[in-house]
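Quick look at the format.
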Amino acid sequence: MLAITIKQFLRSKAGIVGFAILFIVLILAAFAAYIAPYSPIDQNFTQQLLGPSAHHFMGTDRYGRDIFSRIVYGTRYALLSGLLADGVALGIGCLLGLIGAFYGGWWDFAIMRGVDVMMAFPYLLLAMLTIAILGPGLINAMIAIGIVYAPQYARILRSSVLSIKENDYVTAARAMGASDLRIMLQHISLNAMAPIIVQATLTAGAAIIEAAGLGFLGLGAQPPTPEWGAMLSGGRDFMLSAPWIATFPGLAIAATVLGFNLLGDALRDALDPTLHRH
């Protein structure tokens, strides 16, 4: 099955492009100190608002900081925000979905109605409300985004568990005296991972956009952190006189999110057994 899935994924040109984009982003994040030619936070007021050139590939901002260096270092915060927020959403959402679907009845009703209430709020508004409680900052922004996207995981896992728990191997495990915890973790969760893997990939890209949005509003990463959303915010007053300040961070966000979306779509097709061709 794994070999078939890998073969199916390699057939997807879009998936390979997405993987290549994310691989480049990962390399930039891992070796930022060696790739970036300048410090991402040191100010140089003799180099303010310089356009793209051989010395500054993407120009400089109002404080004379090199845009390219800040974008390179910003890949770390982009990946961190996407993965950490995704992890929070995955943990909370899967726990709620698994418990609700497995036990059913009152548990399922209470959890799903809570999920419905959360999904009724616009994502950015709910994240802002959460940050209003936790306070501004990059980590709090990631936690807020994770809470916002948790309902999606709860719904996806719930639908999978409702069908899986009726299978014969689950009934056999229960007849042999397996505990509820063992059945949920060993027999149900592992067989419900395919849609969760796809959702995790897509949500990582969405979380990067949300983190950038919060950074743009001043609720996420705080200056002088080279976070892409905060860089966009810093360049909005120079859209006509120095458009490169906001353009390049915007392109970095778009490329990274595109990479996650392409990879997610390819994984969805590869993990769908109805699409496998032998």
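Next, a different chain entirely:
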Amino acid sequence: MTDKPATRLDTRASLGAKPAWVSASLLFLVSLILFVVPTLPQQTQGSSYNLLFTLLVITAALSMDRGRKKIFRLAAILVVVVWIANFAGLEVLLTVSRTLLFLFFVLIVFGLITQIARRKQVTTRVIVESISGYLLLGVVFSLIVGVVTSLQPEAFNFTLSGAEGGELASFRSDFAYYALVTYTTLGYGEIVPVTPLAKSLAMLMAITGPIYLTVIIAMLVGKFLSYSQEMTDK
């Protein structure tokens, strides 16, 4: 009688296991999207973004400890939608794909935070997932900036010469730059929100960054002290 519950727990643990490289790959991919792709020539950025976002969506799904199969199916559907939108080149479909990506990555960020909260010890993987969650929020906000700009081209004082021609995708590096500068509360000020919707978004970004850092650092410090105390007691 006592062996069956243990067997169930072991089975669940095995289902929740994931390769060690997944967390590192997630951080690597999001870093490429935010920091490397914007430095590439303009004509290669579009294809680079499309490829890396595809890999990022799949890797993000694999990085979840729980519900990975369901999230992976959702990621596969999302990849198809994004590629159809990019192939069609219609701004409406691109806006829909950005919105779906935004919702997906919000789910992933909450999943990472939950995973970090469940861990009893601060390991390298926990630290990597904490950084990945922080950077993924930057990706989330860059996607929202793109959606807002597609709905209101005058929302920010970007120089969007291609906005009327359905070429907002070529400004993704600018969206990411503005999102991270605001999200990290750096705020150089050369790009500013103009419309009420854009201003509300800017306030949300500026508040979310410090809140994330405060919560994650508090969890990591608490886990470190708790584990150290356990080791001392032993």
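The helical segments are 3-16, 21-36, 42-62, 68-88, 91-118, 124-151, 172-183, 196-233.

See the schema section for token definitions.
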